[in-house]
Design goal:
It is a single chain. The protein has 251 residues and is of the alpha/beta class. It has a single domain (5-247), classed as 3-Layer(aba) Sandwich (Rossmann fold), CATH 3.40.50.1820. It contains twelve helices and six strands. The longest helix has 17 residues, at 109-125. The structure holds D-malate. D-malate binds at residues 12-13, 77-78, 173, 200, 226.
Length: 251
């Protein structure tokens, strides 16, 4: 039996592995999608992480538990921050990289302030208040107009997150370094994807990733916002599946 290729995809903030259901449903023959919950999110029983390194190390543990030496590894938004951190720690585990709706830069002081305010909000009012604040920014204008059911799906994911996991992830994002110096050292094939209507990590962030990572491929997804894999599931999976094709065969 030919060995499976593995794609490991890391979810964004403050969501969980079910974000990747559209891609799991569209996984091509010969590929297994591994979609972990980050510590404290979704079904994870682990204590919440407070740094990107802790999150990245848990992703390494997941690869080890699956007996996977090398995989196509990627993530959306915060999942992209985790992916870049993992590349810094263990580049040999990557056969290729996928960066969706994310950025290489660290937080500005203003962004850090916003995250500190959100830590206070989640501690005082819980995940529902975070959903109220984030939903209008997570989904693009087209989804908000044409696919109201998506807002309910995303709200369910956010409300399933514990306050401690949300606060921990906010700390981790505040503390993450500027990854721009890393980009020129990325030597694996890389796919950069972005919803054209992404307000949180706008297309200019993905264009900068593409410009910084030699030989990378950039795919813009019309009609999608920040959660491009959920908002444009077919186009996202087509781009992902076309990209991973050459890396099959037991990676
Ligand atoms: C995410 O979607 O993971 C977050 O919006 C990322 C961020 O806030 O920087």
């Amino acid at each position: 039996m030919p060995s499976l290729g593995h794609v490991l995809l890391v979810h964004g903030f403050p969501l969980n592995a079910t974000l990747w259901r559209p891609q799991t449903e569209r996984a091509p023959t010969g590929w297994r999608l591994v979609t972990p919950d980050l510590p404290g999110f979704g079904a994870s029983q682990l204590p919440p992480a407070r740094t990107m390194e802790e999150m990245a190390k848990e992703v390494l543990n997941v690869l080890d538990r699956h007996g996977v030496e090398r995989a196509v590894i990627g993530g959306l938004s915060m999942g992209g921050y985790v992916t870049l951190t993992l590349y810094r720690l263990a580049p040999a585990r990557f056969s290729a990289m996928v960066l969706a709706d994310t950025r290489a830069t660290a937080d500005t002081e203003q962004q850090k302030e916003g995250r500190r305010a959100m830590i206070s909000t989640v501690q005082a009012k819980g995940a529902g208040a975070v959903a109220d604040e984030m939903l209008p920014k997570l989904l693009g204008a087209t989804s908000q107009r044409d696919r109201p059911e998506l807002a309910a799906t995303v709200r369910r994911m956010i409300e399933a997150s514990s306050s401690a996991a949300i606060a921990g992830a906010l700390h981790a994002m505040i503390g993450r370094p500027d990854s721009r110096p890393l980009l020129a050292r990325i030597t694996v094939p890389t796919l950069v994807l972005c919803g054209e209507e992404d307000l949180l990590t706008p297309p200019s962030d993905s264009e900068a990733l593409h410009a910084g990572i030699g030989g990378s491929r950039l795919v813009m997804l019309p009609g999608a916002g920040h959660l491009s894999n959920l908002e444009a599931p077919g186009a996202f999976s087509n781009a992902l599946n076309a990209f991973i094709g050459p890396f099959s065969g037991g990676h």
